[in-house]
Specification:
This protein is an all-beta fold. It is built from no helices and ten strands. The strands form two sheets. The protein has a six-stranded mixed sheet, with no helix packed on it. The radius of gyration is 13 Å and the shape is globular. The chain starts with a strand and ends with a strand.
């Protein structure tokens, strides 16, 4: 199993980023997947999950983040809009709709002016 996140970076408050997660080594199509994040000095926080076409979001990101997938490319996405400083952290994609399975190495997202 390999999950490789990309797309992180430094963005100003109110800005947008789109994260990608390239998956390999397992049957991605239809598999439940999720995004989680870890802020500095804090524990892992579930952000969003997707099972087939059904999506779910943490209250803290609802209306601002959108999870999606391209099964043909074995890739998971997270579109993040209206970013806030409290969204800063390392973002991980994971197998399982609640980030309860294997996850990648993460990509850093920093929201700061």
């Amino acid at each position: 199993v390999q999950l490789v996140e990309s797309g992180g970076g430094l963005v100003q408050p109110g800005g947008s980023l789109k994260l990608s997660c390239a998956a390999s080594g397992f049957s991605f199509a239809g598999a439940p997947m999720s995004w989680a994040r870890q802020a500095p000095g804090k524990g892992l926080e579930w952000v969003s999950g997707i099972l087939r076409v059904n999506t779910s979001y943490a209250d803290s990101v609802k209306g601002r983040f959108t999870i999606s997938r391209d099964d043909a490319k074995s890739t998971l996405y997270l579109q993040m809009n209206s970013l806030k400083p409290e969204d800063t952290g390392v973002y991980y994609c994971a197998i399982g709709s609640r980030a309860n399975g294997p996850r990648g190495q993460g990509t850093q997202v920093t929201v700061s002016s």
